[in-house]
Design goal:
The structure is a homodimer of 289-residue chains. By secondary structure, chain A is an alpha/beta fold. Chain A has helices spanning 63-68, 71-78, 116-119, 124-139, 154-165, 186-196, 200-204, 208-213, 235-239, 241-250, 267-287; strands at 8-15, 18-27, 32-40, 49-55, 81-85, 142-152, 172-176, 224-229, 255-260. The interface between A and B is medium-sized, with 22 and 22 residues. Chains A, B: The active site is at 153 (charge relay system), 232 (charge relay system), 265 (charge relay system).
Chain lengths: 289, 289
C-alpha cells in the first residue's frame, strides 16, 4: 500500500499476513506532529473492515501497545484494522509538561483542556474523536458503521468517555483496568486542576462515572466489557471501579466487570484477555448490522 | 512459587494463567550476574513439562523476547516452560566490550572465547549449555527428556551450534533468520577474530554450517525448522542461509527452510511464525517419548 498523502509512514512490518505501520501527521487539533500505530489486516485490501481504536495509558507512546500486546495476531484473525494514537501532544514546550510522568507529555488524559496554558495543544478528546477518527476513515479501508474503542488505564477511561460523549461514533467500548472515576482519582485531580482550573463541574464532563449517569445514547446490545486484575497496584487508590459499577447499575447501563485473580496492571494482563475484547467487539458489530 | 534459593526474582507477572518471571543469579561460568526470563505455565505446577530455551539476537537483553514475541500465550497453551538467557555477560568492564553493538555486551555470540582478554567472561556456550541448562532443570519443573532450543539471528545460530555440539541435550532445534555461516559472516569474522584470534580452525568450531558437516549425533525425526523473511535487510550480507542448506543436503541432515515472503528481521516476523515452531518442537517431543 502506498502512503496516504496527508500521512508520513515512519515504519512498516509484515505481521500475520497484514502490516503493522507507524505513521505521523501534522495535527491541526493539537498543533504538533502526532504519531500513531495502525495494523492493517490482509482482509482490508479487499473490503471495508471494522476498526478498533485503542487508547494507551500513562507514559505510553504509540509503541507500547503495538510492541507488547500481541494485537497483530488477533487483528489479522478477526479482520479488524486496529489503530492507536499517541497519548498526548509532544514537543510543544509548555512549562510543566514534562516534570511528572502522570501529567503532560505521555499523559494527556484524552480531554480538551480549557485553561489557556493548555487549551491550545492539550485537546486529545477532539484529536481522537474528530481528527484521528476522520483520518482513519479517510485513509484506510474502514467500515464506518463498525467502529469500536477500547483502552488501558488512562486510555480505558478515555475510551469510556469517548463512547459516552460520542455514542453515534462507536458501536462498542471496552477497557482494561480503566481509571473509572477520573475527577476523584489522585492522578485525575492533579491533572484536571491544571487542565480545567478549580471548577469541578468542568472536571465531571470528562469522567466516565459521571457521564454514564446522564447518558442517553443507544445502549450496547451486550454489557460493555471491563477487565481488572486483582493484583493491580493502582487499583485501590487510582482506578476506583466500584464507583463506575455502581453508577452503571443506577443508570441501568449494562456493564460486565471481571476481576481477574492474580493479574497486575501490565501488558501481560492485557495480552491475556485481549482476545475476549475482540470477541466482544465482534459481537457488537454483528448485532449492529 | 517461592524463589529458588540460588536465584533472585526481579519481576513476575501473571500471563495466560501462568507466570512470566525474570530472575538473576551469580554465574560462575561467565563471572558476573546474569539475568534470564522464564515463563512457567500453570501446567508445570502439577507435572514435569517440556522446556524450550530461546536465544536472542544482537543487542537484546532477556527482555526483548518476553516483551515482543507473544510467547506466553503459546507456552501456556502448549504447556512448555520457555526460558531465555541474556545475550552476553554484562558489567565486566573489558576494554572494547561496549564500543560496537555487534560485539561484546549484548553480542556474546554464544561461544567460549579462547583469547585471554575475553576467555574469562565470554563463555556463553558453556553458560547456556551447562550452567543455565542445569539450573533450569534443577529449579523448575522441567522434563529433562523433552528439551528443545531455538533462537533468532545470532541466537538462531547459537541454537543450531548448541544442538550440533550437544545432541544428547536437545531433542529439537529451530531458528528464525539465523546467521548460518558465522565464520564467514561479517559480524562473525569481526567477533571471532577477537574471541579466537587468527586461527580459523577455532572459528569453525562455532559455525553451524561447518558443524553439520561433521555431525554424528542422532538425527531429528522431522527436518529442523528454519524461517527466514525475504525482506530481511541482513539476509544477503550476514545470514547466508544457502550455505547451511547446502551443507545440510551434503550431510543428509534434514532441514525445512521456509522463505517467508515480505517479512523482515523483526519480532513482528518472529511473532507471526512462533506457533509453527512450537508445533515442530512438540512433535519432536512426542516422537522422542
Amino acid at each position: 500500500m502506498s502512503s496516504p498523502s496527508e500521512l508520513t509512514r515512519e515504519s512498516g512490518a509484515k505481521a500475520f499476513d497484514g502490516h503493522q505501520y507507524v505513521y505521523n501527521h501534522e495535527s491541526s487539533t493539537v498543533g504538533c506532529k502526532m504519531k500513531f500505530g495502525v495494523y492493517v489486516p490482509a482482509k482490508a485490501e479487499k473490503e471495508r473492515v471494522p476498526l478498533l481504536i485503542f487508547l494507551s495509558g500513562l507514559t505510553c507512546t504509540e509503541q507500547n501497545f503495538i510492541t507488547k500486546s500481541g494485537v497483530q495476531r488477533l487483528a489479522s484473525e478477526y479482520g479488524f484494522i486496529v489503530a492507536n494514537p499517541d497519548t498526548s501532544p509532544r514537543g510543544c514546550k509548555i512549562e510543566g509538561d514534562s516534570d511528572n510522568w502522570a501529567f503532560g507529555e505521555g499523559a494527556g488524559y484524552y480531554v480538551d483542556a480549557t485553561e489557556s496554558k493548555w487549551s491550545k495543544n492539550y485537546r486529545m478528546f477532539s484529536y481522537v474523536n474528530d481528527e484521528f477518527y476522520g483520518l482513519l476513515i479517510k485513509n484506510f479501508n474502514v467500515d464506518p458503521n463498525r467502529i469500536g474503542i477500547f483502552g488501558h488505564s488512562m486510555g480505558g477511561h478515555g475510551a469510556l468517555v469517548s463512547f459516552f460523549k460520542r455514542p453515534a461514533q462507536y458501536k462498542s467500548v471496552s477497557a482494561f483496568a480503566p481509571i473509572c472515576n477520573m475527577s476523584t482519582s489522585e492522578w485525575g485531580v492533579d491533572a484536571y486542576k491544571k487542565f480545567f482550573g478549580q471548577d469541578e463541574n468542568l472536571w465531571k464532563q470528562y469522567d466516565a462515572t459521571e457521564l454514564v449517569a446522564s447518558y442517553h445514547g443507544p445502549k450496547p446490545h451486550a454489557p460493555i466489557l471491563i477487565d481488572q486484575g486483582s493484583d493491580d497496584n493502582f487499583l485501590a487508590k487510582y482506578l476506583l471501579p466500584k464507583r463506575l459499577i455502581n453508577a452503571c447499575e443506577k443508570a441501568s447501563f449494562p456493564i460486565y466487570f471481571r476481576e481477574q485473580a492474580g493479574y497486575d496492571h501490565s501488558y501481560y494482563f492485557i495480552m491475556t484477555f485481549l482476545e475476549d475484547h475482540f470477541k466482544y467487539h465482534k459481537k457488537e458489530f454483528e448485532n449492529s448490522k
